[in-house]
């Protein structure tokens, strides 16, 4: 799959960074940070702490499944109408995709700040 076109189309560095975070798994979702611990956190324990589904907090859960982000998804029906991560990442509206990811990460960080 070729995703790099967004690097040339987008002017916003923040949008580029947030798209890249998802594409290259350089984010702080539990699916990824569970790999950083020693020993590694088992996959089925890397659950989302923001919803009651007890689903593993991976990219698909974060972007498509978690009820925590339903309101954000409703603002991006042109992107979030799909049920696969691949379809989200291969769509061509990079500006909206960058905004979507930016809103997701901002919302997650806001929730984390309020929990402290």
Order of helices and strands: HHHHHHHH
Tell me the major beta sheet: none
Mean pLDDT: 86
Instruction: Indicate the percent of residues in helices.
Output: 55-70%
Task: Please report which band the strand proportion falls in: under 5%, 5-15%, 15-25%, 25-35%, 35-45% or over 45%.
Answer: under 5%
The tally of structural domains comes to: 1
Total of DSSP H or I helical runs spanning 4+ residues: 8
Radius of gyration: 14 Å
Strand runs, count: 0
The poorly predicted ranges are: none
Structural category is mainly alpha
Q: What features would you describe in this structure?
A:
The N and C termini lie far apart (39 Å). The chain has one domain. The chain contains eight helices and no strands. 57% of the residues lie in helices and 0% in strands. The protein is globular and about 40 Å long.
């Amino acid at each position: 799959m070729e995703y790099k076109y967004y690097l040339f189309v987008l002017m916003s560095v923040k949008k580029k960074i947030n798209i890249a975070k998802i594409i290259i798994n350089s984010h702080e979702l539990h699916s990824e940070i569970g790999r950083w611990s020693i020993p590694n956190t088992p996959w089925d324990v890397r659950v989302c702490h923001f919803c009651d589904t007890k689903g593993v907090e991976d990219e698909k859960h974060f972007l498509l499944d978690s009820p925590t982000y339903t309101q954000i998804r409703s603002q991006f029906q042109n992107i979030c109408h799909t049920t696969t991560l691949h379809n989200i990442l291969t769509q061509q509206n990079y500006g909206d995709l960058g905004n979507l990811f930016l809103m997701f990460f901002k919302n997650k960080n806001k929730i984390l700040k309020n929990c402290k």
